[in-house]
């Protein structure tokens, strides 16, 4: 019975890893749609978003079934609870990619981004994809060191986001208010995507150690 239960926990982890891959792909395609004003790619991201929503529902159904199957304790219980929280973050990552794709579609055939800031978004898109892929790998391997690394990687996204904001707020910004609003919102979507990737990775740490990073207690404090 316990062996079958652990096999189902592994299946649940596989579902989460698959979801993470889907969210990363959605962000990759949404970024290309944004940078290249590619309507077909934007429509693909928008059309595929329901698959991520369905995957979350499937993960949660699986997790609740495991809770009902038998009363899990210790690591098993942490695994199920972490999966529920991670599935929520992964769905939100998909939603953030969706928002970017919708922005590209809304402005088509005109570009959303001024040339002045395209380089920032190319970098943020690359980093967002790397974070999603590392989160997926952390889920698959249960590698605590890798999971913790994402928090450091996220600092780079925060730096890019802050610098982008200074560009928009410069008094010599020549592209008007509408473009500044678009750039501000899009930058926020990338920053939040990265934050959710970190949140997913923290759930891996929680499963293995029983504590979320940043909540550890220290005897000398």
UniProtKB/TrEMBL annotation:
Q: Which domain of life is it from?
A: Bacteria
Species assigned in the record: Herbihabitans rhizosphaerae
Do you know which PANTHER family this protein is assigned to? PHOSPHATE-SPECIFIC TRANSPORT SYSTEM ACCESSORY PROTEIN PHOU (PTHR42930)
The protein depicted here goes by the name: Phosphate-specific transport system accessory protein PhoU
Q: Which residues form a coiled coil?
A: none
Record function comment: Plays a role in the regulation of phosphate uptake.
Instruction: Tell me which Pfam families the record gives.
Output: PhoU
For this UniProt entry, what's an example GO CC term?
Answer: cytoplasm
PhoU domain mapped to chain residues: 18-103, 122-204
Lineage of this protein's species? Answer: Bacteria, Bacillati, Actinomycetota, Actinomycetes, Pseudonocardiales
List the subcellular locations: Cytoplasm
Family in the record:
Belongs to the PhoU family.
Which NCBIfam families does the entry mention? Answer: phoU_full
């Amino acid at each position: 019975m316990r062996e079958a239960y652990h096999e189902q926990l592994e299946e649940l982890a596989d579902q989460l890893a698959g979801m993470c891959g889907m969210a990363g792909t959605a962000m990759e395609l949404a970024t290309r749609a944004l940078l290249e004003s590619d309507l077909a790619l934007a429509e693909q991201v928008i059309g595929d978003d329901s698959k991520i929503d369905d995957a979350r529902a499937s993960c949660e159904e699986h997790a609740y079934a495991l809770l009902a199957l038998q009363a899990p304790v210790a690591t098993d219980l942490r695994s199920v609870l972490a999966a529920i929280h991670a599935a929520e973050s992964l769905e939100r990552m998909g939603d953030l990619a969706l928002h970017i794709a919708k922005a590209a579609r809304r402005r088509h055939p005109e570009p959303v981004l001024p040339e002045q800031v395209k380089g920032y978004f190319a970098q943020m898109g690359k980093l967002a994809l790397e974070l999603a892929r590392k989160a997926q790998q952390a889920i698959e391997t249960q590698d605590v060191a890798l999971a913790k690394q994402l928090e450091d990687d996220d600092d780079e996204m925060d730096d890019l986001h802050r610098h982008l904001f200074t560009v928009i707020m410069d008094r010599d910004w020549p592209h008007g208010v509408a473009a500044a609003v678009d750039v501000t919102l899009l930058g926020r979507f990338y920053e939040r995507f990265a934050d959710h990737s970190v949140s997913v990775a923290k759930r891996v740490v929680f499963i293995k150690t029983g504590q979320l990073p940043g909540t550890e207690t220290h005897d000398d404090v």
